[in-house]
Design goal:
This protein has 573 residues and is of the alpha+beta class. The protein has helices spanning 158-185, 195-199, 203-226, 229-252, 256-284, 290-318, 331-344, 370-378, 382-408, 419-422, 424-443, 452-469, 474-502, 508-536, 541-561, 563-572, and strands at residues 2-7, 18-21, 29-31, 34-36, 45-55, 59-62, 71-80, 87-91, 96-97, 102-109, 116-121, 123-131. It has three domains: 2-141, Jelly Rolls, CATH 2.60.120; 146-368, MFS general substrate transporter like domains (Growth Hormone, Chain: A); 372-573, MFS general substrate transporter like domains (Growth Hormone, Chain: A). The strands form three sheets. The protein has a six-stranded mixed sheet, with helices on one face.
Length: 573
Amino acid sequence: MQRSFMPDHREGIASETVGCRFDHGERDGCRDGGIDGIATGSQDIHADFGREWMVRGDGAVPVPPCMAGRSCVLRVGVTCLAGGEGAQTRATEPHQCKSCDELSSIQWSQHDRPPNIKILHNARFFLRVQLDSMDTPSNHTERPDSPQRDGSREVWNSGFCSLMVMQFAGAMNDNILRSLISVSVAIGGIWAATKVGTTVGTPVVGLCLTIPFLLFSGWGGQIADRYSKRTLMIILKAIETPCALLALFAFAFESVNLALLTLVLIATQSAFYGPVKYGVIAELVDRRRLGPANGWISMSTQIAIVTGSLIGAIVSELYAPQGTTYDLVWVPGIFIIFFALLGLAPTFFIPRLTAKEPGLRVGWNPFATYLPSLRDMAKGPILGVALAWAGFWLIGMISLSALPDLQKALAPAGESLSPVRAIALVSVLGLFSGIGSALCGWLSRDGVKAIHVPLGAAGMTVFFFLIGIVPVEFWLLAGLAAGGGFCAGFYLIPLWTLIQARAPEGERGRYLGTANAISFAFMTVGAVLYAVWTKVLGFGVSEVFLFNSALALIGCLIFVIRRHRLAGWVQET
């Protein structure tokens, strides 16, 4: 639970008064820049002085007094501005920090006078007050809808385990359907001879998946903030079941148009579900456990993607245009319905959760939330982190497009490539990405490690470069794809955790929805670039991976150059 104290933005001064902003929907009083009353259901309460704000000249920021029965720790971080004269902070007592990119702590108790922090010269800084957990029976009452009643906010509580099952089943469903339709409209598939198969083929499948995310992620973020995430998960998972029934009839009656409509509906449901499922992690587990939680979620998702794609490919081989029995045409739909119901059941085991911003007005324009969210994200590190996250998916989409073509080169001359063999290298990449994510999360069990991001980018640089220059042999390429995927996990988990942790509670859904839309926009660009490079400019697959290696190297260099700032963001998280 957080209380955010937002400074006045004035020329020459950081803040004269401190106002209250409530990200969680409660209305505790504010008095003299402090907190009047006790927050319930939380062991660590963070009073967040903005995300990051600008100071020109000298400014003083008043710090709220400690609440009764608690001692306080003030964490101060300062970063020099480019071209500035330097930055320093001075605390009246008892500690000073004077250099750029420095993090300092100041302790005081309820009986001491709260310190004033003096910001000198041009600086970008953050302040955070952390109150300890000296709760007493008289001032702490657990909220009935708090996840704490579930027992623990460690990673493996029943709420998070339920989320894991939901996420696994949902990813399985999405990828069974995507794999089935992709193979079915490809050469030799049941719909290859249709207008869809002969004109646009598999690219239309990609559009059916990406366009809903670009259109509806903004709405998904708004409703994630406006309503209880538990309620939304129940509704969205219930919607998945009729979509699965539609898929059943699409394959039973061999209707390509109905199958594509089902894919659009499933993708739309996923676009709304994304900000909810990733936003709820921060409500189910402790802030310090976000790294491990994201690692396990990522691993389960990647396993589901690989397994779902394999199931879809295997079923598509059985579901052929000639010789298909009447009983067999129902098999794809039965798989999809099973996983839809499997994903719905665990939603009822998620603990009751309150809306973070119940007064939010959800607009009719799905794009209206993007610009305000981008402006707010740009005030701190979140926009840069989201762009770094999206940059990975640019590389990822190019790689996912190139690996099947690389797999085709392994097939003997004149021999067609089976659907299962066609996704072999992609499956290796995805599986080891999940393993890398889980290991990175485990290593982050005591907090996110800033070093993981440039290490992951450096690893991707090396492995993608080697894929571009080595001979085309399956086991060699599979080993390099495994290495690249493993390093990708180390790159992704810290970035996604930073977005979740640094986003204000009342805006977390909108921030995640905007970050999701950015990543899918980059994925679309990646798919277009690959098509242009290979079909128009005539580049080979090897050259494409060398380009991917160059992109990863740029990302690595950026994070190495700005390692001190990244470390400050991580420490603040």
